[in-house]
Records
---
Amino acid sequence: MKLTDILSPACIKTPLESTEKIAVIGELVDLLGQQGLLRDSEEVRNCVLERERTRSTGIGNGLAVPHGKSPACDNLVMAIGVPSQPLDFESKDGQPVNFVVLLVSPPDQTGPHIQALARVSRLMLMEKFRTALARANSAQEIYDIIARHEA
């Protein structure tokens, strides 16, 4: 599985309008809902926020990966947001976040969910990838950068 198999430029928002963690998560959930990928955006928002309350998904290197499992989607779905300014996400490394990846899957699709989390994390370990993302000016550019680095 490639991230570009579950992502489209329509599910990438740059810049995000929200400037705080909870609102950013809501904005990305709404983006997935607007694309017709969720049956119940409110249920998904609640499950992702519940997961976030157990432990922050700010994993370091400027990345946060809020995620959750919900019967309100049929398949693993993904949205990406770029905050207009670095965002406090209570990250493990204490640094602000400048790239947010939301992943949501049905409860019975644990394998693909974990694979996507691992792929995102691996890409963000690459400085060249992070630098390219920081320079991107559009959703299409972000999508193309992901596609190039996954190849």
Note: Residues 3-150 form a domain with the Mannitol-specific EII; Chain A fold (CATH 3.40.930.10).
---
Amino acid sequence: MAKLSSINKNEKRKKLVKQYAAKYEKLKAIADDKSADESERLMARLKMAELPRNANPTRVRNRCSTTGRPRGYYRKFGINRIELRDLGNKGLIPGLTKSSW
């Protein structure tokens, strides 16, 4: 089980990303537009820098939904490799069977 503080910190980041998502996308589009004026692009970059750091989507860490473990995360299932194996062996994940030959 991951530290509760790490899990909570990541949840706060997810909320901030969701809160600033529209503004971030709009500024990012302006800053990346090659046909726009250079000063306009610079102003968009400066406004992006004023947003909170944790509003950037890359700051969010994928974590296991059951244990909070950050490593070995499977996006398709939303859990880590250890939980995937345990639940798969118990037959709790539809369509997943333990390999044997």
Note: The chain is about 50% helix and 5% strand.
---
Amino acid sequence: MTDTEIRAMALDVTCSSIVDALAARYSHPAHILDLVSPTPGAVLFGRAVTIRYFPVRKDLQDPVDNDFAANFYRAIDEAGGDGAVLVMSSGGHTDAAMGGGRKLTRLRHNGLAGVLTDGRFRDFDDLAGYGFVTYCKGETVRQGGNLIMPLQANVPVEISGVGVVPGDYVYADGAGAVIIPAGDIEEVLADAAAREAKDRASMERMRDEDPKHVMTHGEAR
């Protein structure tokens, strides 16, 4: 299946149906809640490229190794940025600013689908007009460079207790986000679509259900 076909499937389901489909296969945590966006309800979907952040250590900090721009280009170097989702771990400082309108303009210059983080971003008004989708823990106004620093690019990261490996698929909408292993993407999206169809059929049946029958026998499945 092509990337275009996979994307079309993803845009026809929801985070909830994907979470249910994934939970039928694996018991590990895969969904992330309490996210906000400068464009509420917008759908974010694509393969993950990652930057791992770490609490600042001035004795170790290097102007290149721990530079955001350098790590951003390292993250997209192998797979390219077109359609990718930049996943940034906060290093435990979920109230820290991970960036803002200036830094993140690189995402639109390189064709990324958007960005997901368990930290915060500045400049929501700017980000809302950039053409990519942003999900994070909220907006802030203070720079975070004295708290966290980029440490590594394209390594496994942890976002709100969920593991993200480069190449995983990220799906986020107004309800939350879910991380889907690349090897399962087609089956999970097909399962999610089937669940959505089953729910729609169930809602149609509710129009004509007999309350007395339901009270005696329960809901028809």
Note: The chain has a mean pLDDT of 93.
---
Amino acid sequence: MNFFELIQMVGENIWIYGGSLILVLSILVFVHEWGHYIVARMCGVRVEKFSIGFGKEIYGFNDKAGTRWKISMIPLGGFVQLFGDTNPASAGHSDTLEDGDEVREMTEEELKVAFFTKKVWQRALIVLAGPGINYLFAIALLAGLYVTHGQPVSPPTAAAVMEGSNAEKYGFKPHDLILTIDGKGIEDFSDIRREMMVALDEERHFVVKRGGETIEITARPKKVTMTDKFGFSNSIGILGLIGAEKGILIKSIKSIDGVEYDNKQQVLEELKTRMDTTFIIGLKTKESGGNEDSGDSSVADQINDATIIDSLIVAPLTDKNPELWQTEDIGEEVLYLSNLQPEKFVSHTMMTAVQSAINESYVMTVSSLQALWQIVVGTRSATELGGIVRIGAITGETAMQGIIPLILLTALLSINLGFINLLPIPMLDGGHLLFYGIESIIGKAVPEYIQEYSFRAGFVFLIGIMAFTNLNDIYQLIT
């Protein structure tokens, strides 16, 4: 898709792209700021402003507690301003108030409801509540989906192996069941995909069940660059294992063990003689079904500018492919590759759903931390950092797929928002928590001038990051 086609597609669906972005961001910002707000109130702190968005107020009202609730013109964030702070970022405080044309000191009653007079553990709790509620919100969304729709689980088995891939090189075979990677238990094929994506080309230790035998394999995925239809690029690791979620359309098979066939019927007859053996099938690109550990939905699709999956090592079983022996033409015949049930939806009670959602949130956080560290040490490019442009593109594309994918994306973004805000960068919640941690250790607050300079540096850093990510997004879109 070229740039002009992309612009046309987004333009035709501008309300979906723009509306879904504003909706999701507004929900996440409200949840985050509400965490600060509700814990501040519980700790006896007066909240002066609760704003969704920045800039000029569009609509607002005052509640009985004196808080100004408002929606502002720029819907790309929000803030809660606590009583006694000189700005919404809590980068400074003052014990004086403007009273008409005069400036007076706070009364004893006013000092009691000021944020800066609270104990350090209370201030830390108020700050922590923002990212904390983002995690709780994500867990609630995921758990709700697991209870109402079940949790999709695909077995961590190699239904097939890409010919010429690192999986073949290191000795993986069809029907290998992956038990652990670097000691981590593997329950779902998506666990393999996620581990390889973050690993890039780093070595990993696998424990694999093959038949009745348990073996160990040390392997490296191949680092490749994935580029989506918007032009956004990401480095990922690809091992070359094919998941069990889908089969291969018979009409997409062009050869078996190097011998090419003219039509589907010839392929069908040859496949019948090959059942329960291991062989290689060649694929017509862009037409087959399947799932590779890169997360790509079609094993024959282009992985990046230089790599196309065009052949697979398979070992299909007779009892998993009864349709191949039907005499009537059923249309889209499929060759099923896995020896296990391709996918199932696991039913959950509320308790088990919450446990699974917590585990998923933990895994996402660890993956984000690993990817961020790779950017810091230089093994992953900083150009993979996305700004509001990339988030908008992904959100709009997801919204067009339906409400369930959009809810899943909202949960993921909520986790990312919580994670980012916990980073120890001044101006973010993590920066405040760092200062409160130092205060609790040394027994007194870090001097305000040090905090002020730190917050200024943090502000410049964050503005720089925002400018870089969004300019990078626009550049990738154009090029």
Note: DSSP finds twelve helices and 20 strands in the chain.
